[in-house]
Amino acid sequence: MTDIRSISPEALAALGVNQVAYVKPVEVEHEQRYAVHAADGTGVTLFPSRELARLAIRQNDLEPVSVH
Questions:
Q1: What is the DSSP-derived secondary structure letter of residue 49?
Q2: Widest distance between CA atoms in the chain
Q3: In degrees rounded to 5, what are phi and psi of residue 60?
Q4: How far apart are CA 26 and CA 6, in angstroms?
Q5: Is 28 left (phi over 0), alpha (psi -120 to 50) or beta?
Q6: In degrees, to the nearest 5, what angle opens at C-alpha 46 toward C-alphas 45 and 50?
Q7: Which one of 16, 19, 32, 62 has the largest count of C-beta atoms within 10 Å of its C-beta?
Q8: Residue 51's Cα: distance from chain center in Å?
Q9: Phi and psi of 39, rounded to 5°?
Q10: In the chain, what percentage of residues exceed pLDDT 90?
Q11: Which regions of 1-68 does DSSP assign to beta strands (E)?
């Protein structure tokens, strides 16, 4: 088992890349949107609601997580 404290920043960023995506509320042109990001922080797309964002993530066989 690897000690998580000794993992490189690159390896840490890659954890969960093929398993999770996160949803983050953002404001775009004065409107609330929900940004979907890959686990490594790469922006994927925007949705008008958190529910649609989570549904799209699940349809791609990933686990959605929220960022506040």
A1: S
A2: 47
A3: -100, 20
A4: 33
A5: beta
A6: 125
A7: 62
A8: 14
A9: -60, -25
A10: 50
A11: 20-28, 31-38, 43-47, 63-66
